[in-house]
Predict the structure of Polysaccharide biosynthesis domain-containing protein.
Amino acid sequence: MASAKFVNDVTQDDVIATKAALNRSADEYGNDPTVEKMWAMKAFNHADIYFNILCSIKFNEEQLKSQEAKEKWRPFCEKFKGVVEDYNFGTLLRLHTEEDYTPDNSIIVPRIQFYAIELARNREGLNDRIRSLHNLKTQISQLGSRE
């Protein structure tokens, strides 16, 4: 006797086998390295795509503060509500990575937007130059205070 067909060619036998598998103890199952590798590859590809989007443009205030930009960023930011403390708290963001915080190079954005942009900048190495300049200034200042 043929099994009854359900949605998308799933048979009654398939449903029974799935139920039996789900009723087994989790201890009977091991982690399949292939599945873990595929998950890691998918996560990496997602991060790579998102990172490329973030790095593909130089920011200006209009790009971050326009109504169109707010509509694009809002769904992303809201995903972190209740996950990241003060996710929408106003935070200073430098528009250009090669410059320090100045009135002309700083705008206020939601904290989670700051995190997303600065994490992408750090991964790409875009903050290395300003960090090196700051470290050099600190070293010069320390040498001057020894005299």
Q: What stands out?
A: Residues 11-56 form one domain.
